[in-house]
Amino acid sequence: MILAIETSSVICSACLIGLDGKILKQSVSEIENSHAEKLPVMVNDLLQQLGKENLKAVAISKGPGSYTGLRIGTSLAKGICFALNLPLIAVDALYGLALYIQKQHSDFTVVVPHLDARRNEVYMQIRNAGMEEIMATDAVILTTDSFEKYASDKVIFVGNCPMKFKEICSLNSASKFIFQEPLSEFLAAEAIDHYQKKQFEDLAYFQPAYLKNFVAGTNNKFIL
User: Is the sign of the CA dihedral 198, 202, 208, 211 positive or negative?
Assistant: First the structure.
């Protein structure tokens, strides 16, 4: 089985995936920004229930997304891989969201999986109904004409800020807006594919796809 860890947004999750692609067990913490506190406990509980001796690899969401969340998830995944001598697999959080939509909906021609990047900016990619990449993952500042070329398409926006697209962009009435945080179960198909093809990461040098530099916030408790 493969342990999958998803920490690219404000929530975090982990699951165990059978080598047939089935989700054996998943744990989700919906407490925002609790990755450092909740994730190690969730992973430990999963491995105690199903046995770490059955683990073949660890899959991590490589992002894009939360800088702190990705660092925490990657550090934990690397630690497990080093300790148990397991390969590390890195998978695309946005592609996982796109695959989720492909399973749930058939009435679309374009899907835009995305994650919030603050203000009018999003991390996003664009794929067609066959999951072929139309636009590679990037940090994009939304404008009224961002989706002008898709005026005749049935577009589904899926991610944790779909209404941002509705509020800023000029879109047709066929567009759909689905709120969905990324979950570890969405990584299953790509994780299994990478495992079968032995597409593993270098434990020493792997870094998540942050796309943007870290910007420290202000702690209001210390403002005089």
Answer: negative
For residue range 85-143, what is the model confidence (pLDDT) as tens digits? 999 999 999 999 999 999 999 899 999 999 999 889 999 999 999 999 999 999 999 99
The CATH number of domain 2-92+182-218, selected from 3.40.50.2300, 3.30.420.40, 3.30.200.20, 3.40.630.40: 3.30.420.40
The ranges assigned to domains in the chain are 2-92+182-218, 94-179
CATH class label, 94-179: alpha beta
How remote is the C-alpha of 205 from its chain's centroid? 20
Task: Give the Cα separation of 95 and 137 in Å (integer).
Answer: 9
Measured distance CA(178)–CA(167) in Å, rounded: 14
Work out the pLDDT band at 212, boundaries 50, 70, 90. low
Q: What percent of the chain has pLDDT over 90?
A: 87
Looking at residue 216, what is its pLDDT? Answer: 47
Spatial distance between the Cα atoms of 162 and 175, rounded to a whole number of angstroms = 11
Greatest Cα pair distance, the chain, in angstroms, is: 57
Is the bond leading into 87 cis (omega within 30 degrees of zero)?
Answer: no
